[in-house]
Design goal:
The chain is mainly beta. The N terminus is likely disordered. The strands form 9 sheets. Strands 33, 34, 35, 36, 37, 38, 39 and 40 form an 8-stranded antiparallel β-sheet that branches. Strands 1, 3, 4, 5, 7, 11 and 13 form a 7-stranded antiparallel β-sheet that branches.
């Protein structure tokens, strides 16, 4: 057999061996063949002096005196006398972050060669090449495949060091590229390979090719069974307890994906290979969470009261790109409608002051307290040190203070309130948690009415430097807790509306919408209030430049149509027509409400900008919806210069088509489409008009 035949025979054996390995489930995870640049990093810049000193990817043309056979392509990586060009030894070649998720029985396969002149090798006792590995970026490398000389000698052959003791005792590395294999112990998600070179003299060389990582896939099939006995139960006003039985079959689940929704929206449907991100804040009406197999329960805290929640549960195996959901068959579902909580909140607290703590106390507000028994309301104080409840006070032991528009303030002076870092307090009704607040940090309650709940830090605190006449308070305007913000320390106002030094805490006019429609060379302004408290009336202002000065357009003092509704919890609608306008001009409008005691509130967040134009009847156009926001119905006005097929479609914010509102041929002229959405909940929607070479989309805000 001649030399060429030997080479071909070696290649055949290598291919057969590799194929045999693959037949037993070995899969190539990554292959670095050096045929192209990249795929690795080096601790020093690659170099060659064109002669005998080099450290680089090469095809042999830029180095001297080396001769290899069985090269696995055109390029390989080679090193010799690395410090000959003043490089500090040792140096590294690293392959970072190989994704090994879902693989086991990992191995490295690597081709190695060394220029052998057939008579004398040049490796000395301090020469070595070490191939090591690290799993999941632990920072600790483990020995994988080491090459040393055959002892503490000079000019010896490089051999595999089978026991990693610094002395070569295994297979010799020759000038024929030969594949070596080593097992990688353990499993994980990421694998790093590091090759360390310490070659410091001429003739001490190594060549590397085709670094391959292989492994056996550990991907499991989808779970056999769905979960059983899936239930959702309301625990108080703001917690949902989910429970189920894993119902393991022949293939047990690794975990369970729970998806939820509110209203008439659609459930998120999982797809194999897509590991979903968690979404637990309900801000978009959706919920997703993954729970490990064996948990068989999950608690949702701080959900809204008086809302219906729907859930589904999907078992899955594997993770990441290999995740496999069971979606066939009947997917277990559960639903619950939360109880309606009283509209009540903690409004003021004082717990720390200069010198000995005095005048400590707490205050709460309840809407329609006559509908309840005060003895069913309690404020429970918590010690953040052990996360346990200290003492509890029923609200029938509090002193009734100021009241306005069915809201009543209750306060109590309580000595010994904890000084924080952190501590907290919980408001409950009939044993059901309404609020769990804390100051100077957060913690999870270990017992009592807030057990299992994590507190919400109010964001302000008392540091013991302020007088006993100060407190922390909610300030602002509104009709529920979320309308206010915590502030302080401020002068204490127990029993009375809080005051930030400028205006009293109040429950003023609550605007729902402020809209404008240009029609027949007039601007028709419409606004709706959700509620009003001591509202004497409105002042309407307008300006004609930006920036510019607002001038009074009309007032409740002169126009009865602008007089307020006093104090009411019902919606009221107001309309005003501005006829003193000019075409092709822009106007800005804003509202101010005035209380009976003369306090003005400017609604700067509801400023309208209106451009007055006449519709161009020579082109297709869609005017802004009016009113918008809307409750029962809104009008879409559109213009057609000639008979045209028109289509209106309704979409949700995710781009999902909900309905076709209109699809028909229309005559030339101006048309109105009246839209009412009785089957849809409050929220943002998009309506799109399509015609010949025309498409326009508008946002609609539906308010129930």
């Amino acid at each position: 057999m001649n030399y060429l035949s030997v080479i071909h025979w070696f290649k055949l054996v290598t291919i057969i061996l590799f194929g045999f390995s693959s037949a037993f489930g070995q899969t190539t995870i990554t292959l670095l063949d050096f045929e192209t640049t990249g795929g690795y990093t080096t601790s020093i810049t690659e170099f060659t002096d064109g002669d005998y000193d080099y450290f680089l990817r090469t095809d042999g043309s830029d180095i001297t005196g080396e001769s290899f056979s069985n090269i696995q392509g055109s390029y390989y990586f080679a090193a010799q006398d690395i410090d000959g060009e003043n490089a500090p030894l040792p140096v590294n070649l690293t392959i970072d972050n190989v994704d090994i998720t879902g693989y086991s029985s990992l191995q490295i396969k690597i081709y190695l060669a060394e220029d052998d002149d057939g008579t004398e090798q040049d490796w000395d006792g301090n020469d070595y090449v070490h191939i090591d590995y690290d799993l999941d970026n632990s920072g600790t490398y483990n020995s994988l495949l080491w090459i040393e000389n055959e002892g503490d000698t000079t000019n010896a052959a490089p051999l595999i060091d089978t026991n990693f003791d610094g002395s070569g005792d295994g297979t010799e590395i020759t000038d024929t590229f030969t594949q070596f294999t080593a097992d990688i112990s353990g499993i994980g998600s990421l694998l790093d390979i590091q090759i360390t070179f310490n070659l410091d003299s001429g003739g001490e060389d190594i060549a590397i090719d085709n670094i391959e990582i292989v492994g056996s896939s550990s991907v499991k099939p989808e779970p056999t069974n769905h979960a059983t006995s899936f239930t959702a139960n309301a625990s108080g006003y703001h917690q949902i307890d989910l429970s189920w039985n894993d119902n393991n079959g022949a293939q047990a689940a690794d975990g369970f994906l729970i998806v939820g929704k509110t209203g008439s929206g659609s459930f998120y449907t999982p797809a194999d290979g897509i590991d979903p991100d968690e979404d637990t804040d309900w801000s978009d009406g959706d919920f997703k969470v993954q729970v490990d197999q064996g948990a068989q329960s999950y608690n949702l805290n701080y959900v809204d009261d008086a809302i219906a929640y729907d859930f589904r549960i999907y078992p899955y195996t594997n993770y990441g790109a290999d995740i496999d959901f069971k979606t066939d068959g009947t997917v277990p579902s559960a639903n619950v409608t939360m109880h309606t909580a009283p509209n009540a909140w903690i409004n003021e607290i004082h717990y720390d002051n200069v010198s000995t703590d005095t005048s400590e106390g707490v205050e709460a507000i309840i809407e329609y307290p006559g509908d309840y028994s005060l003895s069913d309301f309690s404020i429970t104080f918590y010690n953040g040190g052990d996360q346990k409840a200290d003492d509890s006070h029923a609200l029938d032991t509090f002193t009734e203070g100021s009241s306005a528009n069915n809201f009543v303030i209750y306060s109590k002076m309580i000595s010994g309130i904890q000084n924080g870092a952190p501590d907290g307090l919980a408001l409950s009704h009939d044993g059901n948690l309404i609020q769990f607040l804390s100051y100077e940090g957060t913690f999870t309650a270990a017992d009592g009415v807030a057990s299992g709940h994590t507190s919400i830090d109010i964001g302000v605190s008392e540091d013991g430097s302020r007088p006993a006449t100060s407190s922390l308070q909610l300030v602002g305007d509104g009709t529920q807790y979320s309308d206010f913000i915590w502030d302080g320390p401020l002068p204490a106002t127990f029993g009375y509306p809080n005051n930030d030094g400028n205006v009293d805490q109040s429950l003023p006019v609550s605007l729902v919408s402020f809209t404008a429609e240009v029609k027949n060379d007039e601007v028709i302004l419409t606004w709706i209030t959700e509620s009003e408290i001591e509202n004497q009336g409105f002042i309407l202002e307008r300006k004609e430049t930006e920036p510019g000065t607002y001038l009074e357009l009309d007032s409740f003092r002169d126009n009865p149509a602008l007089q307020g509704a006093g104090s009411t919890a019902e919606r009221h609608s107001y309309t005003y027509t501005d006829r003193d306008i000019k075409i092709d001009k822009t106007y800005w409008y804003r509202l101010t409400d005035v209380s009976f005691d003369g306090v003005k509130t400017v609604h700067d967040d509801w400023v309208l900008q209106v451009k007055v134009t006449r519709p161009d009847l020579n082109r297709i156009d869609l005017e802004p919806a009016y009113p918008n926001p809307f409750n029962a119905q809104t009008r879409l006005t559109y213009h057609l210069p000639k008979p045209t097929e028109v289509r209106f479609e309704l979409y949700n914010p995710l781009g999902m088509k909900l309905a076709t509102l209109l699809e028909e041929n229309k005559t030339a002229g101006t048309h109105n489409l009246y839209v009412s959405l009785p089957e849809y909940p409050s929220g943002i929607y998009f309506v799109q008009m399509s015609a010949v070479r025309f498409r326009k989309t508008q946002k609609l805000l539906l308010l129930r």
